[in-house]
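Long-time lurker, first post. I've been practising inverse folding by hand and with some scripts of my own, and I keep getting stuck on stretches where the structure tokens seem ambiguous. Below is the full token string for one chain I'm working on. Before anyone asks, I'm not after the true native sequence, just a reasonable design that respects the backbone. If someone could post their per-position residues I'd love to compare against what I wrote down in my notebook.
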């Protein structure tokens, strides 16, 4: 009877996802405002209102859940639904980051440009927000029983995929200074910011691609091994993330390319069937997805503004992006005959056991 009164479960996941969308939309709107209104200095803006009201909505949901479930007989340590413990911790970190941010501004002034993304208190806010919005993903990850109905299985997985997309979007937002959808280093005619030295622009462009590949393909490979993703899952993740990032800098032309890359990734999942048992297919998938993503990325640049990079450079960048995916695949599935090294304590215990056996 107690379990029926406890807040949690699939409906709760959907509530947290919807409130997280409010919060993440506020983050993106605030980013859009700072990119389009450079003289914006006041705290009291419509975009801050969406951002902080979204935080209060998610935080209020989590705090009320803790209080309600404790009132129903759960201990404080067990009052949060499984997977949401870190989300509540995220609320506390976010509040501490907000308080620290006010002190930081008084001591060191207001941040601008890249420093606004990397100040310690803003990184605390990002950490807190990441933990908050990723609750539905962790809740679904810890769920052992799988629904037998195919439609129900897809609906059950959707909050986790949206939660993962929001988490990815916070990461890409905080690293937008190194994102190829923000600064199109490979494009002709346009010279992002003040960088005019060709080799510098090329280096920054390639580094941004490799960095964002790791942020995108890492979570994708993780969920591919954990769940059988329904068709359209990766289209959702790729397209929604590209939509939110493109909105801040008016780079809408890349959204169809991201959607096509997500579709290709979904089709590759069905064709290759990557898994632990099929590690070769898994590594091919890990290479092909980022390689195809950036092939379409360069195609969009060619068709819209012209490509400033030579064929040697942009084709090599595609191969390097795929290589990052392959390297990440080895973290998730080590080589077949790899044996993890034991800890120094285990090695010492083994030596002692060997010595004891010799004495006997």
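-- Answer (accepted) --
I ran through it position by position. Result:
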């Amino acid at each position: 009877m107690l379990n029926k009164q406890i807040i949690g479960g699939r409906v709760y996941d959907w509530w947290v996802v919807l409130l997280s969308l409010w919060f993440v939309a506020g983050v993106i709107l605030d980013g859009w405002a700072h990119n389009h209104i450079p003289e914006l200095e006041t705290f009291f803006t419509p975009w801050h209102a969406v951002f902080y009201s979204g935080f209060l909505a998610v935080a209020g949901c989590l705090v009320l859940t803790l209080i309600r479930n404790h009132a129903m007989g759960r201990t404080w340590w067990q009052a949060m639904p499984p997977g949401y413990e870190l989300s509540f911790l995220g609320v506390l970190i976010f509040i501490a980051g907000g308080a620290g941010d006010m002190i930081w501004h008084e001591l060191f002034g207001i941040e601008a440009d890249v420093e606004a993304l990397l100040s310690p208190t803003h990184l605390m806010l990002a950490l807190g927000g990441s933990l908050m919005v990723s609750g539905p993903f962790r809740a679904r990850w810890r769920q052992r029983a799988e629904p037998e109905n195919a439609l129900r299985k897809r609906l059950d997985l959707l909050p986790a995929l949206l939660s993962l997309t929001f988490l990815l979007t916070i990461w890409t937002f905080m690293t937008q200074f190194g994102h190829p959808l923000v600064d199109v280093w490979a494009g002709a005619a346009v010279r992002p910011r003040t960088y005019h030295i060709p080799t510098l622009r090329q280096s920054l462009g390639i580094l941004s691609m490799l960095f964002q590949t790791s942020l995108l393909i890492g979570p994708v490979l993780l969920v591919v091994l954990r769940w059988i993703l329904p068709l359209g899952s990766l289209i959702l993740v790729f397209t929604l993330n590209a939509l939110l990032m493109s909105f801040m800098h008016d780079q809408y032309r890349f959204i169809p390319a991201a959607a096509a890359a997500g579709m290709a990734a979904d089709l590759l999942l069905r064709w290759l069937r990557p898994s632990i048992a099929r590690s070769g297919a898994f590594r091919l998938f890990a290479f092909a997805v980022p390689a195809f993503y950036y092939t379409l990325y360069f195609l969009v640049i060619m068709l819209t503004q012209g490509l400033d990079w030579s064929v040697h450079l942009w084709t090599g960048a595609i191969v390097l992006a795929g290589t990052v995916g392959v390297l990440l695949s080895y973290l998730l599935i080590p080589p077949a005959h790899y044996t993890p090294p034991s800890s120094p304590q285990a090695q010492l215990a083994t030596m002692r056991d060997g010595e004891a056996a010799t004495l006997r």
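A couple of notes from the structure itself: Residues 198-226 form the longest helix (29 residues). The chain has a mean pLDDT of 85. Happy to go over any region you disagree with.
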